[in-house]
Amino acid sequence: MIKTLQQAKITREERVKLISDAESLHSFNSMLNRTRRKDIQDFCIRRPYTLAVEFTERQQELHDELLRFESNALLQLHGSARSIPFMMSTIKRQAASCIFGLAPHIRDLIKRRFQQMEDDPDLDYSPGFTFDGTDANALEALAQNLLAMADNLPDEDPKFDQMLEAIMEKQKQENNKIILFSTFRYTLYYLKKKLLDAGLRVEQVDGNVKDAMRQEFRARFELPKEDADAIDILLFTEVGSEGLDYQFCDMMINYDLPWNPMRIEQRIGRIDRRGQQSETVSIYNMITNGTVDADIYFRCLMRIGIFESSIGECEEILGDIATQLDHIGMDTTLTDEERKIKLEQMADNEVRRIQEMNRLEEEEKEFFGFDLSEYMTSQEIHNAENPWLTQKSLQILIEQYLYRRLGQGSYILGEGDAKQLRLSAAARAELRDDFRKLPSGRNAVRQSWDVYLKGKAPIHPITFDAETAEKKRDNFFITAMHPLAKQAAAYFASNEQAYIRLQYATENLPNGSYHFSVYAWSYVGINPHFKLVVVCDDDVIAAELPDILQEAQSGAAAVKMQPSDWDMLERKQVKLWMDEKAEEIKEAENTSTFKIESLSNNFRNRKRSLEQKIIDTSSESIRRMYTSELESATESYELKVAEIRKKVDQTDIHTTLIANGILEVVN
User: Fold this and answer.
1) What is the span of the domain harbouring residue 341?
2) Pair (65, 206) in one structural domain
3) Residue 430 in contact with residue 407, Cβ under 8 Å?
4) SS3 for 516?
5) How many whole angstroms separate alpha carbon 579 and alpha carbon 586?
6) Please, which residues bridge with residue 660 across strands?
7) What is the pLDDT of residues 640-667, one digit of tens each?
């Protein structure tokens, strides 16, 4: 790294490698990788729409009476007004979300509160509230009035009606799919009934819905609207939406909004993510004026811009916003005007923090001279791809395995990405023998494969395509880690050297026959990894060979090949190996020096702190505790340093000859 930094000119590729090398020094480098949303840079445009409505006069009366009853009931139960705002927060937000969804459950709420008062030994309360209007107690009168208002609430619902207009407009489009969020299940129950009555195909997904049913709902939701089994609208709670993405849907409705901006970002992220098929996504926010939720929405959430663009990179700032919103929203000492002022001040402060963070990130790019984020992401994807593990390569491997193991026949049926595996009972028994030879382990993929091999059904759906596997979860998704692929690899594995003859047609390379060898290099030590190395008797051909091997055809009938024909290539490979090993040892030593110094700095600080605590304490038991902690820290530090040095000593590159071959280049 230092040598590269000292160069007069550094190429883009070298800059990217410097960043990767610096990241590799982190202890978690081999376990964790973070690709930020902004690094991908191909997300769609968010278009937010606000649908603000007023409570009807009767709804407002029920809303206010409900909060008045709950406040008085909690005050009698707990005796202190200080904790009431916190306990009232949920009922306030439920009432603001959908008073119709809450109304049928008001009777249960009242019964629960009176039961709590009857059961409390510190309260002198006579049981027997019957809701018949005969009780003179003020709280009972409140409850009686509240019940009467809930039972006689008119059906008029302007919030739902305004939302339905937007929904029906969307149903005219080819892509008519909508996801709708609410924090409360009572709200979703009410909405589902109303939407079904409007002739829409609706399902609800919350924490009570099993995974299998979620998968079924998602599959039906993705069906075109002409399909009789299709779903038009999916209703979600926060928990219900986890684990599945809906890039084919480009409209969402927030019937109510959580006060935590990160949860809003997570909602939007169900559709605004990589793979979204539309250029824009529409976000409809349903707001009831005159509620705390409306103040938070207009004076904070809209100002920080969460609906227009992702600010999910600022997790710490969003966490602070959520905490402050809770405090301001539940502070009953504030008047409505004071609450609005505080929300605006808080939003302005946090917007400045977000802008400052974004400015610093942009200046960081200018400091290094390049914005490498998109290029780095492309490079990471390219480096992670393996041409020998594509779905086409895996399918060829599996088919060859089945032909060789079971004899000629049609085992994989279907022309598209969704295929079928057809095996007789005898064939499944033979494959199960191979399956048992694999290293033992327990996971769902192994279990489902074993169930098929032991079962009676000859046909099972399979796919080699990730998108198809996502849609059809019952298919065997054949990847390099699937037991069938492992069985095929084990079947063809051989310790004998292979000799091959290939032919490649091109006008860009000189005609002729070229000897080549393919080696596997396995790096061990502080930075273990693996790569294939191709050597050839012509340097121009050698540079092109990795790509040529993917496209070349089998050559003419095999001719007799003598191992001695590749002796020169063996010597060439040894020279490459020696140079690479020397570089690897030097790199390992530099990396270990950095890691040990980092460990030493941390240990010195911790040791200094513990030694000072040992000196300062007057308690013998605490002194022993700190002494023991220091001994453990010292032992841990020494073990980590020894492990790093051991890995440096073990630094090596193990080479294995995979194949020798002759490439025939023709025009």
Assistant:
1) 45-52+156-368
2) no
3) no
4) strand
5) 11
6) 499, 517
7) 999 999 999 999 999 988 888 888 988 7
